[in-house]
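Objective 1b: paired records.
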Amino acid sequence: MRVAFISYPMLLQRYGGLQVQMIESMNALNGMGFDVSLFDWRTEKIEDYDLLHIFSALNSNHRMVEAAKAVGVPVVMSTVVHPPFPARYRLASEMLGKILGKLTNYSVTTTYHQIRAGVSTSDQIIVNGDMELDMMVGQFGASADRVSIIPNAVGQRFFDATPDLFDTRFGIPHPFVVCSASVSPHKNQLAIAKALKGTDIGIVLVGNCHKQYESYLEECRSVAGENLHYLGGFAFDDPVLPSLYAAADALVLPSLSEVMPFAMLECLASGTPAIITRHQSVDLAQTPNLFEEIDPHDFTGLRDMTERFVANPATVQACRDFVASYTWENVALQIREVYRRINPDI
């Protein structure tokens, strides 16, 4: 079975969570005997494939669903849409869409309507967790019987990580927490700086900082002072990355929203507990001092929780056991079952 993985055209100009999800899923499926490749817009035709798997319901990707349907190729869509999206957003989007349509003779549509169009016409939908499922069904019109929950996963090298390489190379004193994310107001690193100001807990920021957010990074530095260490971005296959996660006393990721952040799984697999935003699709049970959620605007709560994690963290083995089933092989098996709903002969 030939499967094309596809997303928005600028996808591989950066390497983040969506790119990891696509590449690791593709490699695991190919390891099971599938013929999966990244679709080449320049030289290939959709009709040359047996199935189109679209990653992200955003960036006008509904047009890909339309193109596949036009030539009779079935579509699976991994939506990768950040919660929350409450009913009031849907009602406002529907009202604004009607106004916009009348003003433009229905030649312009909103992002909401584009997501809805892609979700409602795909043959099967994959989401990362219950919150994303509820959002797709309740607010974007997906049929519940076409939606499957398949969480992200983590590679073996994180389960094997030790702190030695990072400690030797950087020598950052403990205790310190890590925030692994592109630097931006959405990822909310400033909340960490404000929450931990005046404590003895260091902050290590890892991730690219684009030019428009350089002033935001400087604001984080001015608040946190010498406690903040910005290391820039590491390549995903850089061995220092899992070593950093193993060295840190905790991950702190208070983003305004996430889907299912890889840094969370990777840190837990590396033996490090995680504090993440409550606005996400993660279906893991909150466990004191191992995995907990926080309101991204609650600076006092974030400080208290971080101090508690640092003072009495869960053991390395407890963290690893918590995510032991989140392997790419398990992801591939679950994706295969979704494909079988379209073609039972797979």
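Objective 1b, second protein:
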Amino acid sequence: FADERVSAFSWALKDERLIFAMDQDGNERHQLYLHSPGGADAVQLTGAPEVKHIIGPWSPDGDAIAYANNRRDPAFFDIYVQEVTNGEPRMVYRDDGSNSAVAWSPDGRYLVLSRSNTYLYNDLLLLDLESEETRRLTPDGELASFGILGEIDCRGVSWDRDSKGLYLTTNQGHEFRALAYIDVAGGELAYLA
């Protein structure tokens, strides 16, 4: 439905709207757009053609989206939250690294972030959206992947219904990936299979 390349999308949790990422002429500076079923044209949410955006999850109430961009510095990706209807982007996490927003807790309080250490390894962080404080969920310096790493983002991390833990795949301490659960309060990882 578009003349340009669409590289990613994220469905809203409560209706049929979706956010998609599209660049222009293959420049890889993806902008984010809102598409509503039955609507006319998609609405552009980000209007910074020199900035790269990495699409993230919707808020549980469907009012906002989290994403990463390199607006502050072309070498680093910070995390933003933006109300979908007439919202201004708000930086919620600033870090000199390659970060992406991965999963929004069902209670709306937390975001799980991925910080890529290499193309193969990453850390997961827990961002409290009320205090904007973060803490590490995965061991420091661990040569492991948590979730499914893509070119510049991380997927495959899901909250349980009570916002108490995360289901994910990891190869921590293993040669191959396996399904695991991280208890958010204590940080313990348990393999499920």
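The radius of gyration is 16 Å. The CA atoms of residues 47 and 127 lie 26 Å apart.
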